[in-house]
Structure of WxL domain-containing protein:
Amino acid sequence: MYALTKPNTWFKMAVTLLVAALLFVGFWGTSHAADPTASQQATITINPGSRTITSGGDVTLPADTLNGAQQTTALALSNLGIVDASGSGAGWHVTVDAPQVSAGSKTLPAGSVQLDPVQSVSKVDTTSSATPAISTSSVAPVDTGSVTLLDAAAGDGMGSYSAALKNLTVIIPASAYAGTYTTTLTYNLSTAP
């Protein structure tokens, strides 16, 4: 008790407590400035690519021997590959046509070259937009005019797709001349109107 009765000791103790209290209040009571920030804008230019369509290589249908009656010969076709990297979102359609089957000056009748409808369409890349719609539901002659196989509405068909074709069939009439006949299927990928 003796130490606390000295005026100098009380004064030192009071000053020490006051300084401690001020430091405590100063530490907790001081408002801190907001953390500094920085921003950076990133810009990317996405240039348009192109539209492409690919089909399997040339095919040879099974040979046929004339027997006095109409016959057919058929062959399963490879998938079509369709890429729309235009970045336009305009939509597109795929058509197919072929000239009459011919062997030199001899031809098979119009309507002899028939194509089964597309069986299915799938995305090659999962980030592609919605798959195009299959346009035909029945066998169609492709040597009498253009046949639409697929339709991609505006905003759909952006990316890469595989379209499963089924059979190409050639109808051979009883009156056909013997020979090696050919035709060329042309698949056209065009912007939807």
